[in-house]
Structure formats: C-alpha cells, structure tokens
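Hi team,

Filling in the usual template for the complex we talked about on Friday. All components are listed, including any nucleic acid strands or ligand strings, so the model treats them as one assembly.

SUBMITTER: L.P.
PURPOSE: interface mapping
COMPONENTS: two
RESIDUES: 572
SEQUENCES:
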Amino acid sequence: MREAAGSQTATRWVLRVLVVGYLFLLVIWPVVLVAQETFAHGLAPVIDALRQPEVIFAFQLTLSAAFWAVVINTIFGVGISLLLVRYTFPGRRTLNALVDLPLAVSPIVVGLSLVLVYSGRTGWLGGSLEQAGLQIIYAPPGIILATAFVSMPLVIREVMPVLQEIGTEQEQAARSLGASALQTFARITLPAIRWALLYGVVLSLARSLGEFGAVKIVSGGVAMRTQTATLLVEERYQQFGVENSIIAYTAAFILALIAVVALVVVSSFQPQKGRR
Amino acid sequence: MTHRTGVIEPPSLDSPIAGAATNAAGRRLLRGRSATSLSRASGLGLGVALMWFSLLVLIPLTAVLVQASEGGWSAYWDSLRSPQTFAALRLTVGQAILVTVVNIFMGTTIAWVLVRDHFPGKQVLEVVIDIPLALPTIVAGLVLLSLYGPSSPLGVNWANTPVSVFLAFLFVTLPFIVRTVQPVLLEIEPEVEEAAASLGASQFTIFSRVILPSLAPAIASGAALSFCRAISEYGSLVLLSGNLPYSTEVASVRILSYIEGDKLTEAAALASILLIVALIVIVILDVISRRVARYA
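RESULT (copied from the run log):
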C-alpha cells in the first residue's frame, strides 16, 4: 500500500515538473523575453515610439475597426441567438451549424473570399459598390468586414447556451402581464444573459484587435491609410534600424498587454457564469 | 422547460471548426424545448440577420468555391500539381499531424495536472494556457522568435527552419485539447480511480481502462480543433519561418502569394483543398474516438 502511494507521489511530481517546464519553455519565457526586449533601452524610447504618428494612426484605426466589428457582432449575435433558440423556422438547424463556419476558415481564406466579392476591380459586388461611391477593399470598410467575419461566432457561442438554460417561463410571464417585446427583452432577457454577453464581447474585442491575416489581404497595409497595429508590427520588424525594431516591439507589447488584460477580465467572469 | 444536455463545452476563444466538432451538441440543443414560430417582427429580424450573414460569410465563401472551379477539373488539378504548392501542402499537413500528436499527449497531461494536482501557482497556469489564443498571431511569432530565434538565450536558432513551423503550430494550438479535456476530467470522480486502485489495478491500467475511454471523445474533438487551426495558421509564421519555398513555406503563405500574384483561381483551389483536408480529419478523429469509447 505504502509503496503504491509512493509511486503515485513520484508520478505526480514527474507530471507536475513536465507540465510546468513545457509551459515555461513554450509560453512563459518567450513572453517575458518580449517584454524585456521592449524595455531593453529603457522607458524613453518606448514613449517616443508611442508618439510616432504612424503608431498613433495604426492604433486608432485598429480600435475603430474593432469597435465597429464588436458592435455589429453584438447586435447580430444577440439577435441570431434569440432567433435560433426561441423560434422555429425552416433551415434553423443549417443556420445553427453555419454560424460557426468563420472559426473553421483560415484568415487568409477569409481575406481571399472578401476580395473575390468586394474588390472594386474583379469582385462580384465590388464594382457596383465602387460606382456608388463605396470602396471596401483597401479601405476601412474592408478592415471592419474582415474583423467582423473572423470574430462573428464568439458572442453567439457564449449567449446561446445561456438563453437555452434560462428557458422561456419568465419571458412568457412578462408577456402575459402585458409587457411589450422590447420591455421583456430589456427587463428579463438582457439581465439574464448579461455576463455571457459581456464575456462574448470581451472575447470578440480581443480577437478583433489582434486580427492579422485577413486584414492584411483586404487592407493593403498602407501606412497612415490602412495600416492596423498588427500590420505595423510586421512592417517595422522587417525594416532595419533600432528605431523600427523598438516601434515593432512597443506595438507588439501593447497588443500583448491588451490580450492578457482581456484574459484576466474574462477569467474573473467565470465564477459568475458558474462554469467549470 | 429546457433540459440540460451533458454536452462538453468547446473551448471558448477563437477555436476553429468548433462548429463541426460540436454539431451534435448543437443539434441536441435545438431539439425538445419550447420554441414558437416566427411573428412578423421576428420574421423581419431573421430576414435582416440572414442578409447580413450572407453578405459577410456565405456569398464570399461561395465565391471561393466558384473561383476554384472556374477552369474546370483540369485547371483545378494543374494548380495543385505545382511542386512548390505540393511541398507547402506536405509541410503543412505533416507538421499539423505531428503537432496534433504532441498535443494529444501534452494536452491531456496538462489537463490532468490542472484538475487533479494542487500546487501554488496553478491559477497562473490556467491563464498561461489561454495566452496563445488571446495573443495576436503576429505577436505570437515575435514571442517565439525571442526564445528560439537568432538572439536566443538558449543558444539555438530555429528561425527560418522547418522546426519554426512546428513551434508556431505548437504554440497556437496549445489550449485546444486542454480546454476540451478539462471539463470532462472534472466530472470523473477521483473515487472511481481509487476504487480501481484498491482492486489492484496498476496506474497504467487505471489510465487506459478507466480514464482514457471517457476522455476519448473530448480528446478527439480537441485534436480536430488543433489540427484545423494548425493547417490554417498564417500570422505567427510571418516573422518566424521566413516563408522559404520547399522548406518553410506553408499552405496559407502559398495562397497569399497566389493572391498577390493575382492568380485567384489557384489561390481558391488551394483554399478549397485546405477545407477538404480539415473535413477528412474531423471525420477520421470522430471514428477513432467512437472506437476507443466502445472498447471500454
């Protein structure tokens, strides 16, 4: 008996060391090194880098594209979740399977697919839209589309299970007491899904700020016009000179910081969600 | 009344093909609960939602398939037979398989340690697991470059070698199996393992006969997610792998250079192949997980 317990403890220790070592080499150490590299020349060059107009522009563009993508995904996500959970209509199952599709597609394929439809030169709809004065590819609307595409399912996947779980009893009670559909949504449904919704919004925001491949194809990445923060990191890293490399590391550090903060915020929602 | 199904939640961040992996779950969710038919307002809502979904996702993805079939079968075949494209596909699929195998072992081990072991700092590891999903892919490349690139404190330089492709895939797919296996492992009571042990079962027997069969479906769906994420990876490789033809160029990079060379038909053909490979792997892993579950 004691021998078995001893070998169990040994296994436990071996696994513990293996896991910690693996995560240290794959994630922890590399991330720490990037932070060190960013501040290798002190704080001043980092602040200088953040004052560069290209950097300010790239972050503004990234933030506004991410903002619009998240707004669109939130409205669409809550709407489609309500429709899928609360109503029956032909093709509902197909739609339910299709809303997860954007997660299965490579960012490069996402970019390609949007170019094929919205490119002003060759796209299915792009030509007519451009004649109507709306340029999508190589312009901010394309960046918003690409960002909204890749992060679309995140809100839906968080909200749908909660809608499923709360059921319709309270909503029906509210309706039978004379509340309008809007009142029922604002007073009953929204408070019930608020944590899941917030969780979905944070996930989508993190994903939107970091999108690279799809945005690279649809935006063209022209500095001060269509260059987002992730595209700036790529361009500056590949250019020579300490200054460019500091800019690349600074932008990367800010993006990583936002990602980690989003993670911590998200994991603090977990208890309220009662999951895991 | 709604009724809860004992379905495994998929990892919640940007997991690719989670749709396919959780289709069964979705189908089960849709059945057997109160739902009403559309009223006029909700019908209008559905119309607007469908239109947006079509404009954003369905029409563009259809355009890829239409573009791929533009020149008929022979053109489709020719675009895939270019040796450079073939080399890229072989590298991508080969490394994705390798990474998925490593993830099956490491992911399950990490999940086991996170659930069954207790030590200070475990909470930190929980956050660390999710970092690869939350980090922008271009930053992930930069991060790996700092430890495994030219100025590595370890004295290795794997940048621009096929190892860098392996590392990048390993990094971005880290959370998938951990996050699918973890909730299932939480549901298995430690008492079951203790009972098996008290009846004289060895640790290996306990793992292979008691724990593994119940984990198999979760491992398989996590493996499918991790494979599909790997074959579609692009961002983390840009700075890390150098994209050298016949050596470190992956399928996504090949598609991108087709797009930049204005060869949209070839780009779409290769994109459709990636989708087909992903589908095949999902089906194979599903079959394997059913076999293992039945063996129990």
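MY TAKE: The two ends of chain A are 33 Å apart (CA to CA). Chain A has a mean pLDDT of 89.

Thanks, L.
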